[in-house]
Amino acid sequence: MQPNLQTLVESIINLVDSIINLFSNNGDNQDPVSLTFPLPNLVKSYYCAVTMTVTIIVIQLIVFLANIRRNLLQVYRGDDSEIPRRQRSQYVTYATGNFHFAGYFIGYLIWGFIIIAFFSTIFCVSIGAFITFGNVKVLEKILKFILPSLLLVTFKVFLNKLLAQYVFLQHYGDVLALDNRRFFMIFIYFNFFLDAFLGFISSILRFVKSIIGATFYMCRLDYSPLGRKLETFDSGFSAYCGFIHTECTHRHPIMLVFVSHLFSELRKQQYSMTHIDLDDFPLEEKCAVEVKKTSKYIRKWRLAVFLVRNPAIVFFRKTFLKQLCFEDLQAINDVDNDNQHNTQRGAAFYIRQMAAQRPSFVNEIDPAQIIIQRF
After folding, report:
1. Domain boundaries, the chain
2. Does pTM top 0.70 for this prediction?
3. In which band, very low, low, confident or very high, does the pLDDT at 213 lie, cut at 50, 70 and 90?
4. Do the beta carbons of residue 98 and residue 243 sit within 8 Å?
5. What is the pLDDT of residue 348?
6. Beta carbons within 8 Å of 244's beta carbon, 6+ residues apart
7. Contact 97/243 with Cβ under 8 angstroms?
8. Can you spell out the DSSP letters for 88-132?
9. Residue 120: which of 63, 55, 60 has the closest Cα?
């Protein structure tokens, strides 16, 4: 590796010498011009760049895996602070995003590694050249151009914090309530002209920060550099959202526990129905089995009494739901419909439909009192 890098350095030096001699218009009797500025040793810079790149990528992957778990837990409990809330109109988009998640993850990871390696190499070569040759003239020019603006912005930010805490806010910033409002309005008026200049500098810093953030977070699908309002235009983030919502739909812990309980109870009933022989049981156990059989009818009577006392539940039972069409079922199960008027209107429609079949259950129901609880 080291001889190859040294050969690369020599090739770069020869190329620069050739370009200089080509445009220098030297005569035949003049000696060719050679490069006076030596290039730094690229071996150490290369090793440092590779180490920095691998470290950044590994840290980003660890954080990414931790964020997958954290975002899944957030979606499980209905927290949409990071992942946008699931919408019925986007179900197809979520499914296609889940298709692309694995491939996008590999592609973004490779592209992020290349970009970080490129900028890390430039950074390490620049630092190596500065340490090796000690040429501070370029650094002095850069600092003379940038340092005054940075000092002005830093002083302005520090002054604003002092004024906000000790002059304008009550109780030294513990309460978000203004004090000295007249002086505050005067300060806002004169501060406007200075902030117009600082806003120009802040916009440049915003652009630089966006480039740095997009470079470091290129391998992360859970982060969108476009911002919260435009994050849906990011294909990688959309694929990540589709993966999270699909996993939540099929791996929700409460749903899995409930289905597992139902399945285990069903298996127990099937086993008891196929393996119980009452002739081999003693008299006490036969009575117990017969009591279990009669308890089925007791549960039905209790269910009937419960429905008489709570008639609104009739509209959400399986027998009633089977009589509805697909559009009516969507009106009941639509988790994205926040219009209370439509919900009450749909409930009133179902009440009128059921009243023709079971008038004794629905005579005393007020549609305004029916509230559909949605998960």
Report:
1. 1-36, 40-246, 279-369
2. no
3. confident
4. yes
5. 60
6. 68, 71, 72, 75, 83
7. yes
8. GGGHHHHHHHHHHHHHHHHHHHHHHHHHHHHHHHHHHHHHHHHHH
9. 55
